Amino acid sequence: MPDPIIYAKILDIQDEVAALLKADSFFADDEIITERKGDLGQRITAALNKLGLSIRVLTPEAIMTKRSATRRIFRVRVVVECAETALLNKDASGNRRYALSAATAAAMAIDYHPNGQGGTDCATPLDHFESDMENAIVQPSPELLIYQAHFFTEIAINTKS
Predict the structure, then answer these.
(1) Alpha helices in the chain (DSSP H)
(2) φ, ψ for residue 114 (rounded to 5)?
(3) Per-residue pLDDT, 51
(4) Are 151 and 78 in contact (CB under 8 A)?
(5) What are the tens digits of pLDDT across the range 100-120?
(6) Label partner for 121 (CA 20 to 30 A): which of 6, 73, 84, 133?
C-alpha cells in the first residue's frame, strides 16, 4: 500500500501540471485527465470521442534521492501523454489537432515552471519542472498516435523529528 503522504504529494504534482496545461491556450477546451479524476479509462474514451484527442498526466515513478531523520526527497517523473483518434480529431473550429502538436505544446507549457511545492519546509534543489533531455518527446509505439512529453521534479516529505 502506498504511503498516503507521498501519494498525496504526487497527486498535487499531477494537479500542478494539469493547471499549467489548462492555462495554455492550446489546451483550453481539453479535459486534462489525472488520477484524481477517477475512472481513467472511461475519461480517456470520453475525451477521444468528444475531440479526438486525450491529454493524460501520469507520474510513473518516484525515486528517493535523499533522506535524513526528518526529511525525504523524491525525484518524480511526470509524463504528459497525448493520444489521438485520427477519424474524430477536430477542435471546435473543425481543425485537426495532432498528438505530436499537443505533446510539443505541453513541453513548452511546463518546462522550467515552478512545481507548486514551494515554502521553506518543502524546498528542494529542483523546485520546478525540467524536461527530460533524453526523452523530451517520445512516441512509445509507432502503431499508435500517442506522444509523451517527459519531465522531472522533486518533492520533499517531512518526517517525524
Answers:
(1) 4-22, 40-51, 99-110
(2) -55, 150
(3) 61
(4) yes
(5) 899 999 999 998 888 887 655
(6) 133
